[in-house]
Write a structure and sequence with these properties.
globular, binds flavin-adenine dinucleotide, Uridine Diphospho-n-acetylenolpyruvylglucosamine Reductase, domain 2, alpha+beta, 6-stranded antiparallel β-sheet, Vanillyl-alcohol Oxidase, Chain A, domain 3, about 30% helix, 4-stranded mixed β-sheet
Length: about 525
């Protein structure tokens, strides 16, 4: 009896103390005390090097310092971490970190815990990339891959079996969980859809610490929530990626235009062949800008003997649009592919004599951005701040965008614009049940401004704001892709009609709002 009274007095005092010591905020954000259960404790590190790494990302603009970094050895550790946070009166935030190739702190947390997914690799019991062709899946062959795996490693593992994933990003040194939390797009998206449309099944640890296997048929709500879900609902620990026989070669051409209307009309014509069975279809359609104020002009695709006349063209017009087409084939199909590409190009209105071609291996084609990375790293200009801006622009407004942004802002301002991509995709290759948002038109463009701010990062940030403001004023209904630094209200506008669904999913799968705080959506 006495012990009961003493116990309840102690409990009340502890309870009062916990209230007094808890920061006065309605949602848990900071890890104030640090007493993890015994079995989890060794997996937290506060070593300065790990903290410093976790406070940075590819963007090199936003910095947030976590209280600790968690190094999981297994998927169970991830559940245990999330359960530990949820068990506290004030749960701490958890930033899932893939390769941190975000540019605005999306994989960071101030005073919470960074979950370092790539550590799963160090403790693998067998490979976390398994290629399966057991005849049981209706799809055929697939790869089961850990969410922490890099796409380049997935590709290399599948190529050993003569197979390949269908959908890629332009750069493959990104994690599977990271790109599936966004969308994962490139010039093949018009034909096969983004990477989020090419997933058969997922394992997810939700924000409640629950392990769920999900697919369009099983636990579909979790499946659709996490694809394009910006890390808000759970941690993707495994993805089942469909595979197909791999091509070996790529016929790759560039066509130059001085007129945007003709250029975009031809791009849209090419993406209208978008059935996989259609031999007329290209495999990849992108577009890029050559601008007079790009320094240096990237002409690495072209033979030295052609570079001078291309430079003269850029000098003459200020801006040249490059339509890029790739067609995959096998070693023994070269003659046929040449004919197919000739058919594709017939009737396009590029500048006569400004067609250039290359013939490369499939691996070389998929590794093209990494090749640039190696070059720029050797020149000391890769590892600098990256004030990137990525947008989806409705097709009906892309000409206004060209006039107002490419010509009136980017071309006129005295800062080197970096790489500018512009290419269309078909909305019917996206699945609206997923969390990703796109403009509401059948065709929309991806516009990517890849800036490398060797100096003057602020100038680029001002320019980005100017571009966004122009779109707002001109009522160009863009959707930012890979967005960061938004206010709560801006996020609500970004999701538009999907906001309620997104918010309800958060309440259901991560009610304590602990996951991926760096996106700034619910904090
Ligand atoms: P991180 O930056 O580590 O994480 C991104 C977000 O996802 C964070 O909110 C994080 O918390 C969350 N997250 C990470 N892993 C998981 C997981 N396992 N489960 C749940 N949430 C998770 N994108 C394209 O679509 N197409 C391109 O062609 C393309 N090219 C790029 C080229 C370069 C050089 C760079 C730097 C980026 C490029 N991107 C491209 C953008 C890239 O897809 C995203 O930045 C992606 O998030 C990077 O993956 P990551 O592993 O570094 O993710």
């Amino acid at each position: 009896m006495l012990s009961n009274i003493v116990f309840s007095k102690v409990t009340i005092v502890l309870w009062l103390l916990s209230i007094l010591l808890t920061p006065a905020q309605s949602h848990p954000r900071r890890l104030s005390a640090f007493h993890p259960p015994k079995d989890l404790a060794p997996k937290f590190t506060r070593n300065p090097q790990a903290l410093s790494l976790a406070s940075n990302d590819f963007g090199k603009i936003v910095h947030k310092t976590p209280k600790a970094v968690f190094e999981p050895c297994s998927v169970e550790d991830i559940s245990a971490l999330i359960n530990f946070s949820n068990s506290l009166p004030t749960p701490f935030t958890i930033a899932t970190r893939g390769r941190a190739h975000s540019v605005s702190g999306q994989a960071m947390t101030q005073d919470g815990v960074v979950l370092n997914m790539t550590n799963l690799n160090a403790f693998k019991h067998g490979s976390r990339i398994k290629v399966v062709c057991d005849g049981k899946s209706s799809w055929g062959c697939y790869a089961d891959v850990g969410g922490e795996q890099l796409w380049i490693d997935v590709l290399n593992a599948t190529l050993k079996h003569g197979l390949t994933p269908l959908s890629f990003t332009d750069y493959l040194y990104l994690t599977v969980g990271g790109t599936l939390s966004n969308a994962g797009i490139n010039g093949g998206t018009f034909l096969l859809g983004p990477q989020i449309s090419n997933v058969l099944e997922l394992d997810v640890v939700t924000g409640k610490g629950k392990f769920v296997t999900c697919s369009p048929e099983k636990n579909s709500e979790v499946f659709y929530a996490v694809l394009g879900g910006l890390g808000q609902f759970g941690v993707i620990t495994r993805a089942r990626i469909p595979l197909r026989p791999s091509p070996t070669r790529v016929y790759w051409i560039h066509l130059l235009y001085n007129n945007f209307t003709t250029f975009s009309k031809d791009q849209e014509y090419l993406i209208s062949f978008n059935e996989r069975s259609d031999t007329n279809a290209a495999d990849y359609i992108e577009g890029q800008l050559l601008l007079i104020n790009q320094s240096p002009l990237d002409l690495s695709f072209y033979e030295p003997s052609d570079q001078q006349r291309i430079t003269s063209l850029v000098t003459q017009y200020g801006i040249i649009y490059v339509l890029e087409i790739a067609k995959y084939y096998d070693n023994n199909n070269e003659a046929r592919v040449e004919q197919e590409v000739a058919n594709l190009v017939k009737g396009l209105n590029f500048l006569p004599t400004f067609m250039f071609k290359k013939n490369v291996s499939y691996e070389e084609f998929l590794g093209r951005v990494h090749a640039s990375e190696l070059l720029l790293t050797s020149q000391g200009v890769w590892d600098v701040p990256h004030p990137w801006l990525n947008m989806f622009v409705p097709s009906s407004q892309i000409s206004d965008f060209n006039e107002g942004v490419f010509k009136d802002i980017i071309l006129k301002q005295n800062i080197s614009p970096g790489g500018c991509l512009v290419y269309p995709m078909n909305r019917n290759k996206w699945d609206d049940r997923m969390s990703a948002v796109t403009p509401k038109e059948d065709v929309f463009y991806s516009v990517n401004l890849f800036r490398f701010a060797v100096q003057n990062v602020e100038k680029y940030e001002v320019q980005n704001q100017k571009i966004l403001q122009f779109c707002k004023d001109a009522d160009i209904k863009i959707k930012e892709y890979l967005a960061g630094n938004k206010t709560h209200q801006e996020w609500v506008e970004h999701f538009g009609l999907k906001w309620k669904l997104f918010k309800d999913r958060k309440a259901k799968f991560d009610p304590n709002r602990i996951l991926s705080p760096g996106q700034g959506i619910f904090q």
